[in-house]
Amino acid sequence: MDLSWSHHALTRRRTLAAATGLAAGALLPTGPALAAAAQYTNPVIWQDFADIDVMRVGDTYYASASTMHYSPGAPVLRSYDLVNWEIAGHAVPALDFGAKYDLNGARGYVRGIWASSLAYRPSNRTFYWLGQIDFARTYLYTATAVEGPWSRLTTISTPYYDAGLLVDTDDTLYVAYGNTTISVAQLSRDGRSQVRTQEVFRTPSSVGTLEGARFYKINGQYYIFLTRPANGQYILKSSSGPFGPYTMRQVLLDLRGPIPGGGVPHQGGLVRTQSGAWYYMAFVDAYPGGRMPALAPVTWTADGWPVVQLVDGAWGTTYPSPAVPTPPRQVTPMTGVDTFDGTSLKPRWEWNHNPDNTKWSVGNGLTLRTATVTHDLYWARNTLTHRIQGPTSTATVQLDHSAMRDGDRAGLALLRDSSAWIGLKRDGGATRVVTVTGLTMDGNWNTTGTGTEVASAPVSGGRVWLRANADIRPGAPRPGTFSYSTDGITFTRLGPAFSMGNDWRFFMGYRFALFNHATQALGGSVRVTRFEVSTP
To answer: Is the preceding omega at residue 258 within 30 degrees of 0, hence cis?
Structure first.
């Protein structure tokens, strides 16, 4: 990640202009095995999972992603074929990095979990997640299963920016990290402290910024895979050990991506299948929805450099599916119905900042008790978010509002730095369903607008259905629309379409969000008995 707005704005304008320059590429192989194979379509996940780190353990693939201010953080995805993925858990159970992540006197928007690293250490059968927070220090979490429990192993005073963690063949732990100046650190045997760190590469000015390190040892060579945000990918190679010296080669630059209107695939990781084939999983800037993972096969030159396999000079929209063993089961869909049964939230849910865990519960629906008195949704605790499925999808919520109190506001939002919502206002003993737009933040993520009611209708009884439809096709601002129903069958449009902006600077894409906050006093609650994300 890079918070140099001017640099990003320049490169992304160039990137999103759909330039078709090509640094390296080759035609797809055409053997009988591949010719008979099924195909997959990019993006392999049309949801917002950025800064992917990907690996294989046995017959299972895992990936992690950035989540910024959402909690729990650092989702761990699982797949058996590199194409179909599920969310298995989160490596960072809570953002316990300061009061701002609790919306307590300060806010953590666009901070928190940035590009980080996921690795597996066979010697102790343990998964490791490593990432820096707020440029201050690095945190290392471990678990013996990706579902958790994950626990913090250590805190290291050196902030390993955009880190890539390598478990070497001799079991030594190394970290590649940095922005433009790339360094390698060696950790102690137990992973709890830094043994040494050393600068290993300084990016030439002709290239500009390199970051987003991923660290590999392949055929005895050390590789640091680096992104040029947001339009290029480079790789460093050393034959002399993890501390170099390294030579650099361009992997891709201004490569046309697989999503119409989207950006150049970049900043991801390399992974090898059981049969020895290699793949590159990158993300594509595709706002307003976020950054979507795309997958392409990779071959290697005789002298040990990776080459992305192209289709008509671009990252392919389709490729032959990876040749892998038959999956042991189907993965859990990332969309569908949730009735909030059981004793915990399913891993596809993340809170906007840390929740107040005394103010919500699941089992027989999701109960949200008001946790904050505010007129500003961006300050309200216990707003629960769900990624939007692209290219278009619809969220429908069944809401029991009979326990709302005067001054309460509850509903379903399209949440980002410019937001809108449909929901309920309870005032003077009466309840109305309303659509509100104009919730905005500035570039420092301070609230500049708390919303304007643009449509309303009276509702009676204690139950209502709310619906938000989101078009997240990239390349332009896209419409979000709202409707409601009193019987769950006939829905009535409420208010004009909301324009979902496609600016990249908030990094995270739009999300569906469930909320309930007070404007007068705490004590009210709502119960979500059903939530469904559906696609056309």
So the answer is: no
Report DSSP state, residue 373.
B
3 state DSSP class of 519: coil
CB atoms inside a 10 Å sphere around CB 195: 12
Three-class HEC string of 238-263: ECCCCCCCCEEEEEEECCCCCCCCCC
Residue with the bigger pLDDT between 20 and 110: it is: 110
Tokens read off for 458: 């009276």
Provide φ and ψ at 388, rounded to 5°: -85, 135
Instruction: Render 499-513 in DSSP notation, one character per residue.
Output: EE---STT-S--EEE
> How far is it, in rounded angstroms, from Cα 516 to Cα 456?
18
Nearest to 525 by CA among 439, 400, 429, 365: 400
Rg (CA), the chain: 23
Tell me if residue 141 falls in helix, strand or coil.
Answer: strand
Per DSSP, the three-state class of 377 is helix
Best CA proximity match to 516, nearest among 389, 315, 367, 387: 367
Cα atoms in the 13 Å half-sphere on the side-chain side of 193:
1
**Residue 37 banded pLDDT, cuts 50, 70, 90:** low
Q: What is the pLDDT of residue 162?
A: 98
Angstrom distance (rounded) from CA 87 to CA 242: 32
For the stretch 244-292, pLDDT in tens is 999 999 999 999 999 999 999 999 999 999 999 999 999 999 999 999 9
The total number of residues written for the chain in this structure: 536
- Residue 38: partners with Cβ closer than 8 Å, 6 or more residues away: 320, 321
Cα→Cα distances 94→111, 137, 191, 354, 425, Å: 14, 16, 21, 7, 31
Task: List C-alpha distances in Å: 135 to 97, 102, 143, 157, 328.
Answer: 12, 19, 24, 10, 41
- Give residue 29's pLDDT band: very low, low, confident or very high (50, 70, 90): very low
Whole-model pTM? 0.93
Residue type at 141 in one-letter notation: Y
